[in-house]
Write a structure and sequence with these properties.
With 233 residues, the chain is an alpha/beta fold. The chain is built from 9 helices and 6 strands. A 6-stranded mixed β-sheet has the order 3-2-4-1-5-6.
């Protein structure tokens, strides 16, 4: 599977693979973690830029993930600047607190006037119905357009994942990156990192970790989803 550039992802839904004869290059291991559960997640309310905390039992919810991350070392750590993601990182990888880079581009989509509302409250709204059917064409009132959402995540990926200088990356052991963010962001990232994967093809629950292994082949990064934690991570 071949990683897609931001422009390719917007205009081409699938990318051709690089010829197998091309030499394999540096490797990257990306671990994407969705924040833990909030009260709005439980109540099935739309939660985008509204900055609320995790539930009080977050320590118990994230205990297994914390154990899985306990002995892992990271070459780079990025986190959404919203509280629920910062709290999740503090629970699962406190050792990374000093090296984390907070980035607003990793925020969830902004649902505008629909923040804090549920499907039941919105289902008879014609604009909402149109957004459900065509999210790339309809913007929530006072919210963020799909193009803006995609552009900021593309910007992050192109800066920190897709365009890293190969000279700085190891040829044997993979460069390890931890990203703590939101469900919509993870779906979009996977649709770029994994060929043939669409935005709605991935279901990610609060507190879940998804790992992607990337390897350079020719001028492209080839991506595949692997189990987390994996042997040798």
């Amino acid at each position: 599977m071949a990683i897609k550039t931001g422009q390719q992802h917007q205009t081409e839904r699938s990318a051709s693979l690089v010829g197998e004869s091309e030499q394999l290059g540096p490797q990257r291991s990306i671990v994407l973690i969705r924040h833990g559960t909030t009260s709005w997640n439980v109540e099935k309310k739309y939660l985008g830029h509204t900055d609320i905390a995790l539930l009080p039992d977050a320590n118990e919810e994230l205990a297994m993930l914390r154990e899985q991350c306990r002995d892992l070392a990271w070459d780079a750590v990025y986190c959404s600047d919203l509280l629920r993601c910062r709290q999740t990182l503090a629970h699962i990888a406190p050792q990374a607190a000093s090296e984390v880079k907070l980035d607003r581009r990793l925020r969830e989509n902004d649902f505008g006037q629909w923040e804090g509302l549920t499907y039941e409250q919105l289902k008879h709204n014609p604009i909402y119905r149109s957004w459900i059917d065509h999210p790339q064409e309809v913007t929530p009132p006072g919210g963020e357009a799909w193009s803006s959402f995609a552009e900021r995540i593309d910007s992050f990926l192109d800066e920190h994942i897709c365009s890293m200088d190969d000279v700085r990356l190891p040829q044997s052991n993979p460069h390890r990156t931890l990203i703590v963010t939101h469900g919509g962001v993870i779906r979009y990232m996977l649709s770029r990192l994994l060929d043939g994967v669409g935005f709605w093809d991935t279901h990610v629950i609060p507190g879940q970790a998804i790992q992607v292994h990337l390897q350079k082949q020719g001028r492209r990064w080839l991506g595949r989803r692997v189990s987390f934690p994996s042997i040798g991570l």
